[in-house]
């Protein structure tokens, strides 16, 4: 004997708003012309240099360079992720996330950990007669300090942005 089935569907306003607002991706060309945007691109390019210069050596024989590699690769990936978020203006589609606080925490932690990694990198570079990794490690140390200064600059701009949001 056939049974009658009743199916009821409901739609929330959140789902309707999400599907309507995510139909097109925006692209913010002007972001790369701002100082934080330029610093972010510099962090990506020079951060890539830091970890590729170390990765091309026998860094695994020295635990200190493992730490530098972890910090460099970790923050390189996250910086690329944040660049995509800012370039596509995804932060405007997710207003529940306190983006100014997230940016401040990200840049502040990147500055502190990159500073530690740069110091560890510089102090681990040794000039030994049979060590052919010296030039790569010395160059990675230099670029690690440059990337650290870029993260310091972005931390400053993130703080200014965060401070202006908390005063409103």
TrEMBL record:
Organism field: Rostratula benghalensis
Entry keyword Transmembrane: yes
Keyword Transport on entry: no
InterPro entries: MAL, Marvel, MARVEL-CKLF_proteins
Protein name: CKLF8 protein
Gene: Cmtm8
Primary subcellular site in the record, as a coarse category: membrane
Lineage: superkingdom: Eukaryota
Cellular compartments annotated: Membrane
The MARVEL domain, residue ranges: 31-163
Coiled-coil stretches: none
Phylogenetic classification of the source organism: Eukaryota, Metazoa, Chordata, Craniata, Vertebrata
């Amino acid at each position: 004997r056939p049974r009658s089935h009743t199916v009821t569907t409901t739609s929330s306003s959140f789902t309707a708003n999400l599907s309507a607002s995510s139909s097109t991706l925006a692209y913010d060309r002007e972001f790369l012309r701002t100082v934080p945007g330029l610093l972010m691109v510099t962090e990506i390019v020079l951060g890539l240099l830091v970890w590729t210069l170390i990765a091309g050596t026998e860094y695994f024989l020295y635990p200190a360079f493992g730490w530098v590699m972890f910090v460099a690769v970790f923050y390189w990936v996250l910086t690329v992720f944040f660049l995509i978020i800012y370039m596509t203006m995804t932060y405007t589609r997710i207003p529940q996330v306190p983006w100014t606080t997230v940016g401040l925490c990200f840049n502040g932690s990147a500055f502190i950990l990159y500073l530690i990694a740069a110091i560890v990198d510089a102090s681990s570079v040794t000039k030994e007669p049979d060590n052919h990794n010296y030039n790569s490690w010395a160059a990675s140390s230099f670029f690690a300090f440059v990337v650290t200064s870029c993260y310091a600059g972005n931390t400053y701009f993130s703080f200014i942005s965060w401070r202006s949001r908390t005063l409103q």
